Each structure stands twice: as C-alpha cells, then as structure tokens.
Amino acid sequence: MKGRPLLVTAALILRDDRILVAKRLPDSRFEPDKWEFPGGKVDFSEHPKEAMKRELQEEMGIEVEVGKLYDLASHVYDQNGMLRHVVILFYRCTITSGEPKPLDCQDIRWVSRDQLADLTFVEGDHPLMRKLSEDDGFWIRT
Length: 142
Fold this sequence. Notes:
Elements: E1 6-15, E2 18-23, E3 35-36, E4 39-41, H1 48-60, E5 63-79, E6 82-97, E7 107-112, H2 126-134
Parallel strand pairs: 1-6
Antiparallel strand pairs: 1-2, 1-4, 2-3, 2-7, 5-6
C-alpha cells in the first residue's frame, strides 16, 4: 500500500520494573505472531493521545493516562511486495483503571528490560528496543 504514511501510537507502560508488551494476532497482515508495544492507528481528525486511550481500551480493557512522547519511529513494512509506511509515536502511559487482558491481541506479558531481547518484535519497534536497552533513566520509576 503506497501513499501516505499510517500514523500509529504505542504505549510504554511500566509496572514494577517491567514493561507491558502484546503479541500480534496470527491473522495480522504485517508481521503476525510478533511482539509489539500496545496501541494502534490514529483515525482521521483524532488526536494521537485520544487514539492511544481508545486503542488500549479496545485491545486490553484498560484506561490510561497518556504522558510525554518518548520517541518516534518511521518504518516501511514490506510483506511480499505490499508496502506500508508507518510512523509510530511512543508515549509513556500509566494505567488508571482496569487490569490488562488480551482482548484484541494474542497474548500480553509484563517483561523486564533483559527479557525484551528474548522476544521477537515487529521491525518498526527495533530502534526503540535499542534505545530502551541503553536508557537507564527510562527504567527508574518517577
């Protein structure tokens, strides 16, 4: 799918020195069965922070407070010649209500910094993974 980039949000949620990750459904068009940070597409005229809240409610049944933008990434996925350019806004978030459940994803996990490297993540998240592995300050609760 060539054309305009797709804008998506992704949540970075810490709890007890662990971060929340989600596994894509097996029927996902791009990189099924891989891990990612939860979030999703920003709809037309929707603010990215509102999209984040909506997506986390739909995917995991949680309400969040969306904090500061931590990072952004731009990636072109190529699935057998089908291209999709995605721009990802990674926000720090805090759960304000509910306990995460895999409602619209295959699985969820709370993983430590060291365990992140053991999971197979979508390509678009790889630059963030490197940043998280080097950023000691991210893992300190504030």
